[in-house]
Amino acid sequence: MSVRPPLREQVYRSIRSDLMSGQIAPSERLGEERLAHLYGVSRTPVREALAKLESDGLVERDEHGLFPYRPHLDELGGLYELRLLLEVHGLRRVLEGEAPPMIETRSVPSSTGGTRFAHRCRYRTPVS
Questions:
Q1: CB–CB of 31/72 below 8 Å?
Q2: Residue 30: partners with Cβ closer than 8 Å, 6 or more residues away
Q3: Of 21, 59, 70, 95, which has the maximum CB count within 10 A?
Q4: pLDDT tens readout for residues 2-40
């Protein structure tokens, strides 16, 4: 028997997924009533989900209500710097043998009789 997450968590996950996939436009106001109708729930779980999304930094409040977070031009430099630092750190770990490679390459027979290379991403949690 599986336990279903609370309704507020289900709504949170649905809104988060729609934000990440672009189903909700960046300029779209996140009104409680409209979202409650859209997800077929009351306003209470929507309000709780929006509060959690706001605390996660995925939505922001202005004088007109809640909207999906959009990075501001002055923040982009810091975001790119963070991304660069993380990528360099990850590459360094792989090159120094601290982390398993993320991409595995192997040759496989081709349908045309030759050989082709197959790439497969692996995501493993290091065992300590």
A1: no
A2: 15, 24, 50, 59, 65, 66, 67, 68
A3: 59
A4: 788 899 999 999 999 999 998 999 899 999 999 999 999
Name the β-bridge partners of 108: 116
Average pLDDT over residues 56-66: 92
At 127, the pLDDT band (50, 70, 90 cuts) reads very low
Longest dimension (CA), the chain: 65
Spatial distance between the Cα atoms of 89 and 96, rounded to a whole number of angstroms: 11
Q: Are 51 and 23 in contact (CB under 8 A)?
A: no
- pTM of the entire predicted model: 0.59
Handedness of CA 116, 119, 120, 126 (dihedral sign): positive
- Angstrom CA distances, 10 to 7, 16, 33, 39, 45, stand at 5, 10, 17, 10, 9
Under a CB-based contact definition with an 8 Å cutoff, are residues 31 and 50 in contact? no
